[in-house]
Design goal:
This protein is an alpha+beta fold. Among the domains are: 93 residues, Helicase, Ruva Protein, domain 3; 94 residues, Rossmann fold (3-Layer(aba) Sandwich). 35% of the residues lie in helices and 14% in strands. The protein has eleven helices and eight strands. It has a two-stranded antiparallel ribbon with strand order 1-2. α8 packs antiparallel against α9 and α9 runs antiparallel to α10. The termini are far apart. The N terminus is likely disordered.
C-alpha cells in the first residue's frame, strides 16, 4: 500500500493493482479535473469558458479578403486596404524595397502575383532579412530586418493595443469563425465531458422547451442522486411546464434573447417568477404577441393561477376569452 498523490492498493483476491487519485485525475489518460462547481458550467466565468475563444464560441481573425478587398488593383495603387488612407510614404517605399528583394513587380495587380509573393506580403518573410530604405524630407534611413507581413502586423497591433479606437479600426479587417477548440459550444472540454443521461449541459440547452421538459420528466437517477437533486429538478420541471403552458414549447433553451418577440420575452420573464410568486404588480403589454390563437386560453389560465397565488397583473392586451 502506497500513499502520496495517489493511493495504490493491491487487491489480494483479484491480484490487480488499483490507483486512486485525490485530484480528480484519470490514471489512464492523465486528465485532471477541477472541483466541480456551478462556475465550471458558465461560459461567462474564466473557470468554465473555453480558453481559446474566452467563452464567445467564435474567434476573430484578420481576414485576407478584408485586407485585400479588390485584388484587381496593384499594391502601389492601394490594394492593401489598411494602408490606403495613410499620408505617410513609408509603407509604399517599404513595398518597393520588398518587391526589389523578392523580384516581383509592385505595379502588377495583386491577383497576378505568385502565391509565394502573396504569402510574403501578407504573412512576412520569416527569418529572411530584407534591406529597407526610407526617405523623408530631411534624410534617408537604411535598416535590414525580416518583413513582418501585413496580416501579422495587424494581429500584433490588435493584441497589444490598449486603445478601444484602434481595436475598432482594426476590427474592420476581421471576420468571425466558429471556435475550433470548443466547436462553438463556449465551454472548456472538462465541462462538456460531464454528462447526465449521456447529455452534457450544451446538449440540454440545445433542446426545445418541449423536449427539455420531457427529458427532465423522464430522467432516471439512482437514490442518492435523486435525493441530492430533488429540489432543483422540481424547480426546473415547474419552469419548463409553465413555459409550455404559455405556448413557448417550440423555443430552444439556448435561444438568444435578442431574437425573441416582445410577447415571448414577457412570458419567459413571467416563468422566472412562476415558481415562487410574490406580491408584486406586473404590467404586461400584449403578452399574447406571437402566440398562436389556440394557445390563448392556456395563457389566460396560467395568468389566472398567478393572480390567485398572489401576483398582481395589469394587462394591455387584445386577447378575448373564447
Amino acid at each position: 500500500m502506497k500513499f502520496g498523490e495517489g493511493v495504490t492498493i493491491i487487491d489480494v483476491i483479484e491480484k490487480e493493482e488499483l490507483l486512486f487519485s485525490e485530484h480528480f485525475a484519470c490514471v489512464y489518460c492523465g486528465i485532471s479535473y477541477p472541483e466541480i462547481s456551478p462556475r465550471l458550467f458558465s461560459f461567462n466565468n474564466p473557470n468554465g469558458a473555453c480558453s481559446e475563444c474566452g467563452g464567445l464560441g467564435f474567434t476573430q481573425k484578420i481576414d485576407e479578403n478584408y485586407v485585400i478587398p479588390d485584388p484587381d488593383i496593384s499594391l502601389m495603387d492601394g490594394a492593401i486596404a489598411p494602408w490606403q488612407n495613410t499620408q505617410s510614404l513609408y509603407y509604399y517605399q517599404m513595398l518597393e524595397c520588398l518587391a526589389k528583394h523578392f523580384k516581383f513587380d509592385p505595379y502588377k495587380t495583386f491577383k497576378e502575383l505568385s502565391d509565394e509573393n502573396k504569402k510574403i506580403i501578407l504573412y512576412g518573410s520569416g527569418t529572411e532579412d530584407v534591406e529597407f530604405r526610407y526617405e523623408d524630407t530631411d534624410r534617408q534611413h537604411y535598416f535590414k530586418k525580416p518583413f513582418e507581413g501585413v496580416i501579422t502586423s495587424l494581429e500584433r497591433r490588435y493584441s497589444q493595443t490598449q486603445s478601444d479606437y484602434i481595436r475598432q479600426e482594426l476590427g474592420r479587417f476581421m471576420s468571425e469563425s466558429k471556435c475550433v477548440k470548443c466547436d462553438g459550444k463556449r465551454l472548456r472540454p472538462e465541462s462538456l465531458s460531464i454528462k447526465i443521461a449521456d447529455l452534457n449541459i450544451v446538449d440540454v440547452t440545445a433542446l426545445s422547451i418541449k423536449d427539455a421538459s420531457e427529458f427532465f420528466e423522464n430522467l432516471q437517477l439512482n437514490e442518492k442522486d435523486q435525493f441530492v437533486s430533488e429540489r432543483i429538478l422540481n424547480e426546473i420541471k415547474d419552469r419548463l411546464r409553465f413555459m409550455r403552458n404559455v405556448g413557448l414549447d417550440y423555443l430552444t433553451i439556448d435561444r438568444s434573447s435578442a431574437t425573441l418577440s416582445g410577447g415571448e420575452g414577457q412570458r419567459i420573464r413571467l416563468a422566472t417568477k412562476s415558481v415562487h410568486p410574490c406580491r408584486i404588480l406586473y404590467i404586461l403589454d400584449e403578452p399574447s404577441i406571437g402566440l398562436h390563437q389556440r394557445d390563448n386560453q392556456r395563457l389566460i389560465d396560467t395568468l389566472i393561477r398567478l393572480r390567485i397565488s398572489g401576483t398582481r397583473l395589469l394587462l394591455s392586451s387584445t386577447m378575448r376569452r373564447p
